[in-house]
Amino acid sequence: MKNIIVPIDFSEQSEHALKVAASLAKKHGSEILALHMLELNQAMVSSSEGFHPEQTVFLIKLAEKRFSDFLDKPYLKGITITPIVKHFKVFSEVNQVAKKHNAELIVMGSHGTDGLKEIFVGSNAEKVVRNATIPVLVIKDEMPDFKIDRFVFACDFRDDNLLAFQKAKDFAKMLSAKLDLVYINTPGDNFLSTKDAYDRINKFLRKSNTGMEVEIYNDYSVEKGILNYSEMSGADIIGISTHGRKGLSHFFMGSIGEDLANHSKIPVVTFKISN
């Protein structure tokens, strides 16, 4: 793993993510791209009325100083850190940074959101998950030694998940973690008999050239099933593919990957499904 992006907003959560990224960087010889997005809009930067350009420069310099102080941590010693400051909070810019620097992973801190705030605002981690084309690892709590033994990857075993599944296998191998595959069976229109479920799973595994066992777990919703199965099996991390839906499609259909990023107490890593 060559480069890791860590979005920084100076919060406790972003420091949790930075520590995990530092642990990964030391193990794999990676560089950390520390990304800070300022809350400046175009009017503030370009307007000559009501807001002076020198004030904008002052705010940018102030943020850069705070950024530099934030990155002056003992646990970052010996790691190559590249600070990147963007002037606007546009989450699609994370992809531009990833492409420019050949980054392979985003490590993101999150405290999660619930209720109306989640529906109308969402968390920054959710927005990064929705926009990112590379895997996003979402961290909730401090993990001084990021050691992953059991990695649960939840999948519906449809063909469009083949690339995401391969990325999940590579990620588990990188972490030296045991990969645990699960299919969540839910009531209603998505319900499959055991035979139909295994027919789909076996077809998928043949196409992926993978000989692994898959657990079928029944629950009332996919999200609850993943969370309950992961808790029952003692998972250290949850992996899932995400469509990254946007606009009205996202509002009405949502994304299980984004919901898990918000609600899971253990780390979640998402892998974008190629459209």
UniProtKB/TrEMBL annotation:
Gene3D superfamilies given for it? HUPs (3.40.50.620)
Q: Which InterPro entries would you find in this protein's record?
A: Rossmann-like_a/b/a_fold (IPR014729), Universal_stress_UspA (IPR006015), UspA (IPR006016)
Q: Please report which protein family the annotation says this sequence is part of.
A: Belongs to the universal stress protein A family.
What's one Pfam family here?
Usp
Give all residue intervals belonging to the UspA domain: 1-140, 149-271
Q: Return the protein name.
A: Universal stress protein
Please give the organism: Ulvibacterium marinum
